[in-house]
Amino acid sequence: MTKMTEIKGNIASPKGFVADATHAELKFQKLDMGVILSEVPAAVAGVFTTNKVSAAPVKLDKTVVAGGVAQAIIVNSAIANAVTGEEGLINAKKTQRLLAEKFDLDAKHVAVCSTGVIGKQLPMDKIALGISKLSATNGHSDGFSEAILTTDLVKKEIVYQVELGGEVVTVAGVCKGSGMIHPNMATMLGFITTDAKIAQPLLQEILSEVIEVTFNQITVDGDTSTNDTVLVLANGQAGNAEITADTADYDGFKAVLAAVCQTLAKKIAADGEGATKLIEVNVTGAPDELSARMIAKHIVGSSLVKTAIFGADPNWGRVISAIGQVAPFEVPDIELEIQSDLVLLHSTPVDFDQAELSEKLKEKIVVIDVELNNGDKSGTAWGCDLTYKYVEINALYHS
């Protein structure tokens, strides 16, 4: 078991990174532009939306990741630069070039991300203004996590340290996401920095595997966005021996990267638009991991389950219905616990105190445990309740 320690910090905590944030006047007053810079070119890995209408920055960043190296990430909120045609791609490339010129970088080593309203062109005069105010020496690194937010109510960041290759390695993550969350992936931007030394192909392999059991296991509303992006920069400045496959350091790095991604994913689920509760669903006893994850995610994504949780209604029939809709095998022997109260055993109802369980469902975290008794594989998913506030937010927010 890898021993990792959570520390106070931000996305610039790993050695050799700086970050800054500014007001580019895309929003009325709030910070709306941020940058992450590595002192040296870094290995870059990325995972992107599966939405076939992907935003201009996604198209651009896929080419950056294909190159294997990045030294900066520039992010704006308020405007997604999605469904903006050729002009949108031109503006993303111009943003890339302006940032490269500002910090004397190779433009092909600059990733560009945007989030916000779909269908609006970036006001390039304001983008240029914002970039002109960014600094690599007097950076407002704590502000980066705020600058990328849209309908989020809280900032989402985490920093872990672990000893690898004889040195202390730091892994920091930050993300945004609140609505239009149904990964593969979601209306989320996630950024991870690390001073670990690792080759780009291995970094990409690990990220792709970790994403499947973390960010791709959250859902808020079943809608997959146009701009979903997770990028990892690894600049090697910790001085550790290079991480290679099938070693203890490989296992340790994968564990800490998974911990960062899972923590951020759960923060997104808990901050779902209008949400009052985080829902965790654990499925065990499945014949394969994919089925376990799929069932868990369908339960947590069910509108009927989500509204029951909002209303503190221990309606376990909705959970069973969700299982039966997607299970690719017969499920005649289910055990079901809600908030550790057994409500179903061998697919037979068990007497329980409904009033007491209803009170437990008013807690901030609701856990549903499902045992399928059909194998030894497991999966977990996270989501949130569906509230009146979600409808209000999305009726009023223009996207």
Automatic annotation (TrEMBL):
Metabolic or biological pathway, per its Swiss-Prot or TrEMBL entry: Amino-acid biosynthesis; L-arginine biosynthesis; L-ornithine and N-acetyl-L-glutamate from L-glutamate and N(2)-acetyl-L-ornithine (cyclic): step 1/1; Amino-acid biosynthesis; L-arginine biosynthesis; N(2)-acetyl-L-ornithine from L-glutamate: step 1/4
A Pfam family recorded for this sequence: ArgJ
Record-annotated active site: 187
UniProt site (Cleavage): 186-187
Localization, UniProt: Cytoplasm
Site feature location: Involved in the stabilization of negative charge on the oxyanion by the formation of the oxyanion hole: 115-116
UniProt xrefs under InterPro entries: Arg_biosynth_ArgJ (IPR002813), ArgJ-like_dom_sf (IPR016117), ArgJ_beta_C (IPR042195)
Binding site for substrate: 150, 176, 187, 273, 394, 399
Domain of life from the UniProt record: Bacteria
The entry's keywords: Acyltransferase, Amino-acid biosynthesis, Arginine biosynthesis, Autocatalytic cleavage, Cytoplasm, Multifunctional enzyme, Transferase
Function comment: Catalyzes two activities which are involved in the cyclic version of arginine biosynthesis: the synthesis of N-acetylglutamate from glutamate and acetyl-CoA as the acetyl donor, and of ornithine by transacetylation between N(2)-acetylornithine and glutamate.
Identification of the protein by name: Arginine biosynthesis bifunctional protein ArgJ
Species this chain originates from: Pseudolactococcus insecticola
